[in-house]
Sequence to fold (141 residues):
Amino acid sequence: MALVAGVLFGLGLAVSQMVNPAKVLAFLDIAGAWDPSLAVVMAGALLVTLPAYRLAQARRRPVLAERFAWPTARDIDRRLVAGAVLFGVGWGLVGLCPGPAIASFAFGLPKSFVFVGTMAAGAMLARALPPLPGERVPASA
Fold:
């Protein structure tokens, strides 16, 4: 099922052109030649996701698993804010984010391979850094 979901997600990214950095950068250029089409893609994703989450939350257990693994973290800390800022800056500079970058491997864009490589290096570096003073680190980290 994970493979089917991943392929469906990747196809959706390709069809919506979210794997095209120029399309994404045009969406982010609100002061210039703004292309609002990706806002429609995001709104469509919300129209599907929100009702699906409601349906899932009404169930006692998932169809293909023993239990749900809902996120429990609700804290907004420095690490979360720093990650969000890095994500936004990366998306704005390159026009790619993790899912579309991996999906764009199918098109052989060198920019995608560089992006995913540096993203993986950044993730490994973040895990290697000690926690900030007073920061709670989840047991799985």
User: Anything to note?
Assistant: DSSP finds six helices and no strands in the chain. The longest helix spans residues 37-58. The CA atoms of residues 14 and 103 lie 7 Å apart. The chain has one domain: 2-128.
